[in-house]
Amino acid sequence: MSETSPVQTSLDLVTIPPAGYAAYWLSVKRLMDKKRGPEALADELQFATEPYTKLLLQAASSTLEEDTVRRMARNKALTLSRDFRRKFRLIRQTACAMAIGENPAKTLITLSGAFGMPVLDEARTMEQAQGLIETMRAGDLDPAVFPDISHLTRPEELILKLLFFVLWARRQGKTGLQAFLPGVSFPYLGDALRLCIDGLEEPFIRRRLDAQASELLVEASHKMRMGLELAMAVKNRKPYDDLLAMARSFLLDM
User: Fold this and answer.
1) φ, ψ of residue 219 in degrees (nearest 5)
2) pLDDT tens digits for 49-75?
3) Residue 151: closest CA among 78, 214, 89, 208
4) How far apart are CA 235 and CA 72, in angstroms?
């Protein structure tokens, strides 16, 4: 985001609270009022990285009809939600594999098959993961930095690191995953590892993580709908108080 609105650097539609995403769009409106023109949106676009928010900023500064913008937003929301759901499923499958002590080669086949067309070479990925194990055991990898993966991670890196966890749990025991918790920034991954460390049964882990993923996706969709309405209000030059009232309609605590 711009210098006066630092929220952009932490925008993530899965983890940002709804009030935080509302505050982002309200700050965009404030910025537009201050600069008195669409150049404020152009400035904001320079810092935009989150795909859905970037699309809304582009649409808000365009001459596109409202129906077209809404179709574009719906398409982007469906595309992102599908990707989020698939990556949540990969993390859940990994946790379940660790819970039952599944053969890592079988886990890798399951993970790589989630993307339809191959996104990696399975033999090479297994070799890389085993190399990471040796590097970690030698003390040349920091366990507080290594596990920084989430639903935003590229597929090949996500699969490689998830496979690493499966191999590590198989060799060091599930309690050996404890060393990685301080470096986990994505709560869903942290919960998956903790469930394994606690020795819970695979059916419970599956149900728990599926339920959590469903709630996260519902909440992300809710934030996307709110963002669309606020972006359209920005596009239509509605006053700040109208945006604030609209944001409140999406929130429990405003």
Assistant:
1) -65, -40
2) 999 999 999 999 999 999 999 999 999
3) 89
4) 15
Write the single-letter amino acid at 154: R
Q: Compute the chain's Rg from CA coordinates.
A: 21
Dihedral sign of CA atoms 200, 172, 194, 161 in order: negative
| Chain CA centroid to CA 70, Å | 22
Whole-Å CA distances, 182 to 59, 91, 115, 136: 39, 18, 29, 15
Place of tokens 């109208």: 242
Q: Are 184 and 149 in contact (CB under 8 A)?
A: no
Cβ neighbours of residue 169 closer than 8 Å, sequence gap 6 or more = 98, 101, 176, 177, 196
Q: What is the pTM of this model?
A: 0.91
The reported pLDDT for the residue numbered 37 is: 65
What is the DSSP secondary-structure string of 202-213?
HHHHHHHHHHHH
Angstrom distance (rounded) from CA 90 to CA 84:
10
Opening angle at CA 76, ends 75 and 79, nearest 5: 90
Task: Write the single-letter amino acid at 219.
Answer: E
